[in-house]
Amino acid sequence: MMALGLFAFVTRLSELNRGQIEGLVEAYEVALASSNLVQTVEQAVAQVGAVIMAPDTTTARSKSASLEDKIAQVDSQRRILLSKIGDHLPEAEKIKISLMIDEFISYQTDTAQLCLKFSPQAAIIQANDKSTTVNREHMLAEVKQLHSGMVRSAEEMRKELATSQSTRSTLLQIVPASSLMIGALMVAALMRGRQAKTNKQRFDSALDTMSQGFCLVDDTGRLLVVNSRLQVLFGLTEDLVGQSVQEMARRIVIARQIDDPEALKFLMNFNLHVQNMKAAVLTAELGQRIFDFRFDPLADGGLVLLAEEVTYARTAARKMERMALFDALTGLPNRAQLFRKLEATLQTFRLDARPFAVLCVDLDAFKDVNDTLGHLMGDKLLIEVSRRLKACLRPEDFVARLGGDEFVVVIAPSPTAVVPSAICERLIAEIGRPYDIEGQRLNIGASAGVALAPAQARSAEEILANADLALYHAKEQGRGCYRHFTAEMQAKAERRRRLGADLRNATANRELDLYYQPIVDGRTGQIETFEALVRWRHPTEGLVSPAEFIPIAEESGMIVDIGQWVLERACHDATTWPDQIRVAVNVSPLQFRRGDILQRVKQVLAVSGLPARRLEIEVTESVVIQDPNVTLQIFEELAALGVRLALDDFGTGYSSLSYLSRFPFHKIKIDRAFVKSIDDSKSLAVVGAMTQLAKSLDAKLVAEGVETREQLEVLIHRGVTSIQGFLYSQPRPLDEVADMIEASFPAQRCA
Ligand code: C2E
Ligand code: MG
Ligand code: MG
Hints:
- The structure is a single chain.
- By secondary structure, the protein is an alpha/beta fold.
- It contains 29 helices and 22 strands.
- The relative contact order is 0.05.
- Residues 1-26, 114-128, 164-184 and 186-193 have low confidence and may be disordered.
- The structure holds ligand C2E and magnesium ion (2 copies).
- Ligand C2E is lined by residues 517, 533-534, 545-547, 550, 563, 566, 586, 588, 618, 648-649, 672, 704-707, 724-726, 731.
- Residues 517, 533-534, 545-547, 550, 563, 566, 586, 588, 618, 648-649, 672, 704-707, 724-726, 731 line the site of ligand C2E.
C-alpha cells in the first residue's frame, strides 16, 4: 500500500508542468516544515503510549499535560506547513493535501487523546493494536529516510544556487525530494485515515456496548460524544452531539414525560451537578423509573457523564429496607426499628433530660381468636388493632409490632411529666371495644406494662425488659389492666430465673414429691378420687408451690419430663388403693402438643397395672383451644381406653361451655374463685348455670376450693355433690393417704 502510494506519486512527477515545478521553489522550507511536523507527531504519539502505560494516575496526569503541549505544537507546525505549500498548487490539489495532512495528524493525536480522556476501553484497544503500532513505525521510518535524502538534495541545491548555476536544473533536482516528502505524508495520512476509521468504529462500538449511557461534554458544556445506549435509555431520537448538556437534560424530561414540579426539580439538580464540577452521583426518579447520573469532571474543564437505570436495584433495596424495618402484616415499625427508636430517644434524653415512657401491650384472648376462627381472621384483627392503637396516640408517639399480638408504644418525651396511666387506660378501652370483621363480632382485651426511662432503665434492652415484666404482672393479675414496673417485679423475675435453673436438676435430685388431695361426695363424705399435686422441696428455698414452679416448667418445656414423672408415680401409687378410688393427674397443654400423650398413658397404665377407668386426666381450657381437632381425637382415644377426662378450673378461661361440649368430658371442676365468692349473687348464678349445663352434657360437676361448711351447703343445695377443698383435707403426702381412706371407708384398707 505504502509502496504503491509512493510509486504512484513518483510517476506523477513526470507529469508536473513547468509552472508547477516553479511553484515548488519553496520546497526546501516545505520539506523542513514537514520534517518538523512528522517529528513532533511522532513524539506526541510516543507520549500517548507513556500516558497509557503510566503506573499511577499522578504520573498519567503529568504525562498527559506534556502531551497537551505537544499537541499544541503539532497544531502550530501544521499551520506553518500548510502556509508553506504555497499558492502555486491548484486549489483542489492544495485542499486535498492539507486534508490528508490533517487526517494524519488527527488520527495520530486526537484519537489517542480522546481514548485517554474518557474511555479506558478504547485506550486498551489502541494500546493493544499491534498492527497499528507496527504500521506507524514502518511509516515513520520511511518518511524519515525520504526526509534525509531530501535534505541532502536541498543542501546541494542551495550550494548550486549560491554559485548561480542554472536555477532550472537545480529546481528539477530538488523536486523529487520535496514532492516525495509531501507524497509520503499524503500516503501516510491516507493509511492513517483508514486505520483511524476502523479504530473509530471499534471505539464507537466499545462505547455503544457499554451498559451505561455515556456522554462527553467539552469545557463549554457542549456534547462531544453521546453513545447510543444513552439515547435508548431515555428514548431520545435526535442527534445530541453539539447540543448543550442542559439541553440534553431538557430533552430527557420531555421524552420521559415528566410533570412540571418533578421535571423542574430534576433540571435544577442536574444543572447544579454540571456546574459544581465535582465527581458526584445524582439519583433521579423520572416517571416510574429511577436513574443514576454520574458526573466526572475532566481536567480540561470538560465532563464525562454516565447514566444508568437503577429502578430494579433501588426498589429492591427500598423493599428490603421496608422489610427490615416494618412489620409486613400491619405496616407498623418492627422490632429492629423499635430498637433504633429507643436508642435515639435515649440519646435525645441524654441531651435534654426529658423522660419518656415505654408501654408493652399484649392482647388478651387473641390466641383464642386465632385458634377458633383461623389465622386469616386473626390477621385481620391485628390490622384493626394496629389502626386503633395508632389512632389513639399523638403523631410524635411511636408504635411497633414485635410479632404475634405484642405491641410496643414509645410515648415521646413531653415538656410536662408523662402520664402513661391515662394513655394505658385509653389504649385498653379502645382495643377492648368490639370488632366487626367479616360479619363476625369479636371481643378481645389488652394488658399493658409501663416502664419509664431513664429513671428505671438506661438501655433499650433494659427499658423493654422492664415494660415486659410489668406486662407479665398485668397478665398475671387478671388481664385487661396495666402495671407499672417496680423493683419488686425485678426481684421476682430474678427468683423465677433462679428457680428455673434449679428446676432442671429437681427430678434427678429426687426433690419432687406427690401430695394427694381427696375429692369427696359432699353428702356421704366418701372419697371418690385423689388428685395428685406435685411438690418441690427446694434444697434452700424449702417447699416451692406448684403455682410458682409449674408455669416456669411450662415455659421452659421441663413440664414434659415432670408430667411424665407425675403420671408414672400417681398411677403406681393408686394401684395400692381400693378399686373404686380414682387418681386424678394434671396434664399440661405442652404434653398434649407433643402428640404422644396417648402412647405415654397407655404405657404407664401397662407398666403400673392400673385399670384405665381409675385414671382421670385434668386439663384446662387452653389444652382444648390450642388445636381443637387434634385434641378431640386424642380425647376420644383416651376415652375409648376408659380414661376419664376432667375440665379443670372451669370459668377462668374464655370459651363457653357450649363450645367445650364438643369434647367428651366426664367431669367439670368449677374454679375455686366461684366457690370463694359463692355468697355473691353473680357467682351463685354462674354456678347454677353450670349445674344445668353439666347435667345436659352428662358430666359430673366438682367444686374446687371448698373451705367452709356454708359453701358446702350452698353447693349441695345447688346440686354440686363432688367436693374438693380444705374443708375435707389439704393435699397430703402419700403415707397419709391410707389413713384418709380408712377414715372415709372404715371397712376398706389399702393394699
Ligand atoms: P389445680 O389442679 O386446680 O389444683 C388444685 C389446687 O387448689 C391445689 O393447689 C390445691 O392445693 C388447691 N386447693 C385445693 N383445695 C383448696 C382450698 O380449699 N382452698 C385453697 N385456697 N386452695 C385449695 P396446688 O397444689 O398449689 O397446685 C396448684 C396448681 O398447680 C394446680 O391447680 C395445678 O394447676 C398445678 N399442678 C399441681 N400439680 C401439677 C402437676 O403434677 N402437673 C401439672 N401440669 N400441674 C400441676
Ligand atoms: Mg387440677
Ligand atoms: Mg383446679
